[in-house]
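Record format v2
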Amino acid sequence: MFNLEATLFCGQTFAWQKDGSTYRGVIGQRLVTLDVNEPCSAIVSDPFLRHYFDLEYPYEEAEAHLAALDPKLGELLSVHRSIHILNQDPWETTLSFITSQNNTIRRIRNLLDALRQTYGKEVAPDHHALPTPDELLRESSEDRLRALGFGYRAEYLLDAAGKSNLLATVSDLTDEEALHTLQRIHGVGPKVASCILLFAYGRKDVFPLDTWTGRILASFYPGKDPSFFSPYGGIAQQHLFYAERRKIDSHW
DNA sequence: GGCCAGGAGGCCT
DNA sequence: AGGCCTCATGGC
């Protein structure tokens, strides 16, 4: 089994919280509850969760490749074990990573929770889905989003909602074409587009380059660029990011 | 009070 | 194409 804790809290999703002996998250329109000690059977027996947790992808092969490529990654893989790249909903991923730009993880979570509480459907008592594009366009506005604390990103969320049809075309495109297409959304640049491709479309060779991963490359891999980790740049990036973040605080 | 946060748009050369 | 400035907001 993969490392569920790391998979949920390595920064690829902001939907989950750990309370007591359970992980809870609203994924799509559904509240998912997993027992911290016995999550496997619930995941394996559920087709939706099997796909969400990416059980069909051959991680052993990718991880063996990365461990052989570079000793630092080999060590991280032995510590983290397997971190899976989730197959998240493209729209939810777009909302999440537009919100993430120039922001802190704590505040990203708070803003997305506010978005759920304010506009999302209540799928279980006190648990709300993220708003759909239509819900956002119909019920919200730039002023209201600014009032929630989104600041200058308010306009970006509404533009993304209006262009959500773009997301349906991405699956047929190459990585390069998809990066270009996603950046037609205002507020989506190279980094956010990379996160959407990796975390929603399973493009395992896309390496989101941000302040953290840029620093990591500069200090541990001088002279190298993300193509060094190809064709598993996305997986490598996630282990590098998680390792670096864990030095700061283990619970965010 | 300046600087930074899982950046990106706009404008300048 | 590359280099600044600005964009809300909050924590340190």
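The domain at 90-201 of chain A is CATH 1.10.340.30 (Endonuclease III; domain 1).
The CA atoms of residues 163 and 184 of chain A lie 9 Å apart.
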